[in-house]
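Incident log, support desk, overnight shift.

02:14 A customer reports that sequence design results differ from what the structure should imply. Their input is reproduced verbatim below. On-call engineer (initials T.W.) acknowledged and began investigating.
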């Protein structure tokens, strides 16, 4: 009977050890799947981090360009205001110069008329004084 008991006992323990090996195998399979998923997730995280860094660089570059454009726009606005002020001064000087010219036109017409009258009188006097007319 002892031999029979040994066979039964050994058979029971053999099946428990087989079950433990099966559970260990399943655990190793799950651990491998977890490790592979973790590696894939880590690679995705690295790719997303690289994309984020590139996007930050692009945003920084765009911000720098916008700031530079603001500076240029301010500088050009100041130059335009200066040019406008200069144009306003030149316009005022031109109007100041034109006003007397407009008044002088009527005066110069009168002076021209007087000059023509005196020239006509002078020529007629020369003709009476014995100068030959052509």
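02:41 Re-run completed on a clean worker. Output:
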């Amino acid at each position: 009977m002892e031999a029979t008991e040994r066979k039964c006992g050994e058979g029971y323990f053999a099946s428990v050890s087989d079950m433990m090996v099966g559970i260990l195998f399943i655990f190793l399979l799950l651990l491998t799947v977890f490790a592979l998923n973790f590696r894939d997730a880590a690679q995705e995280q690295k790719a997303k981090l690289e994309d984020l860094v590139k996007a930050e660089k692009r945003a920084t570059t765009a911000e720098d360009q916008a700031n530079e454009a603001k500076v240029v726009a301010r500088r050009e606005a100041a130059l335009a205001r200066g040019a406008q002020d200069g144009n306003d001064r030149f316009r005022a000087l031109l109007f100041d110069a034109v006003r007397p010219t407009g008044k002088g036109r009527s005066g110069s017409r009168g002076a021209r008329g007087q000059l023509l009258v005196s020239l006509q009188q002078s020529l007629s006097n020369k003709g009476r004084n014995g100068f030959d007319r052509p």
